[in-house]
Design a protein that fits this description.
By secondary structure, the chain is of the alpha+beta class. The protein has two helices and five strands, in the order αβββββα.
């Protein structure tokens, strides 16, 4: 299924508490993250995604909040 809209618009339609944007072309479900390295997000199936320097601080902070709220 194809979807044509800016990622920020799609992100606003999703639950902002459960999804983040680690790179300008990617939306990630926080529940699927296994590990965050310096410039990489590793998902539970071993898939590696880039983590941009400009989005890293906000992404990591939102992910930490997700972890705290999901306890």
């Amino acid at each position: 299924y194809d979807l044509y809209m800016p990622l920020n618009e799609l992100h606003s339609k999703l639950s902002i508490d459960n999804f983040g944007i680690p790179h300008r072309s990617i939306i990630v479900n926080y529940a699927k993250i296994n590990l965050i390295k310096k410039d990489t997000v590793i998902l539970d199936r071993g898939i590696e995604l880039p983590l941009s320097k400009s989005k890293k601080s906000t992404f990591v902070k939102s992910f930490k909040n997700f972890l705290l709220e999901s306890r």
